[in-house]
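Tip: read the tokens left to right.
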């Protein structure tokens, strides 16, 4: 069990290497939803996403002799960049398995931090098989994108900061893919703001968390959404936490995600990627659940391929 002390220690461990990201508000967004919303802008985090927290905590938590052999992972982009950066900071090698369809902006980010990319087909089986081959060749330690205690603990520091900056939130809303951020947020909520309700946003085209909560077991993931950072299934570490501490998952369509992106760009004046726009899309879809409430939203990332974004908005 990840404890309150674990999250506090992780926060102290990673503070020199991350931003304490700002919390933004918008009267127009409040008027639109009927809620009092506080946006935790992890899109302004190092590498442009909350993933910097978990990867840094995981690498720093490795025994020095183990860490010296390097680290490896599979990721569509944000965890890939985060792990490559953490490896560069600690002076070790990083080996990153990425689907060939991953956004080029995220591939460039990995290379900029000295990560060695191994491309694979855009399936979980291909990711895992390729990663096994890389680890067998290099001896590197696998740092899973979400199904890793140190990663989950590090991700929980974002919600810890939000509760410190904005006390007494009624609801907190992160997105969910593999569940690292959601499970970390759920545990941070339990320890630092136990009266706060946790509700997650998830793409309709990758709704395995929603289905898993309904069935009581981990359901297979689909991969049909513009929210590329959320196209993965829950893990055996994240699912039990989510089952116990998350009240609800709200699913949203790609059209609703794109509209949420547009509103966030226009009203907060910050760049938000599709995955990061999912929580606000969930609020827009279910306004009655949030009306009159004090709501924290974790904007998880801002790594957008401009050509893809322009296509979403019909710009040539």
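Filled-in amino acids:
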């Amino acid at each position: 069990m990840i404890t309150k002390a674990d999250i506090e220690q992780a926060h102290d461990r990673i503070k020199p290497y991350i931003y304490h990201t700002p919390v933004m508000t918008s009267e127009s967004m409040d008027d639109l939803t009927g809620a009092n919303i506080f946006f935790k802008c992890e899109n302004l985090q190092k590498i442009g996403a909350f993933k910097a927290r978990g990867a840094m905590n995981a690498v720093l938590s490795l025994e020095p002799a183990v860490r010296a052999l390097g680290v490896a992972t599979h990721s569509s982009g944000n965890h890939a960049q985060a792990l490559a950066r953490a490896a560069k900071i600690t002076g070790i090698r990083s080996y990153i398995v990425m689907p060939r369809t991953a956004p080029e902006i995220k591939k460039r980010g990995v290379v900029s931090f000295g990560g060695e990319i191994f491309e694979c087909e855009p399936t979980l089986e291909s990711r895992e098989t390729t990663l096994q081959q890389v680890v067998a060749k290099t001896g590197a330690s696998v740092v899973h994108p979400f199904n890793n205690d140190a990663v989950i603990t590090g991700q929980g520091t974002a919600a810890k900061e939000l509760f410190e900056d904005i006390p007494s939130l009624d609801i907190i809303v992160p997105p969910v893919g593999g569940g690292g951020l959601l499970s970390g947020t759920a545990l941070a909520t339990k320890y630092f703001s136990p009266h706060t309700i946790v509700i997650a946003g998830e793409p309709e085209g990758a709704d395995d968390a929603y289905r898993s909560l309904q069935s009581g077991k981990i359901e297979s993931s689909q991969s049909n959404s513009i929210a590329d950072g959320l196209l993965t299934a829950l893990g055996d570490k994240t699912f039990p936490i989510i089952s116990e501490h998350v009240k609800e998952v709200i699913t949203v369509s790609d059209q609703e995600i794109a509209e949420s992106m547009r509103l966030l760009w226009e009203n907060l004046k910050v760049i938000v990627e599709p995955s990061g726009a999912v929580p606000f899309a969930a609020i827009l879809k279910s306004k009655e659940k949030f009306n009159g409430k004090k709501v924290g939203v974790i904007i998880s990332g801002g790594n957008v391929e401009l050509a893809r974004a322009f296509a979403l908005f019909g710009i040539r």
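The chain has two domains: 4-50+148-312, 52-142. The longest strand covers residues 197-203.
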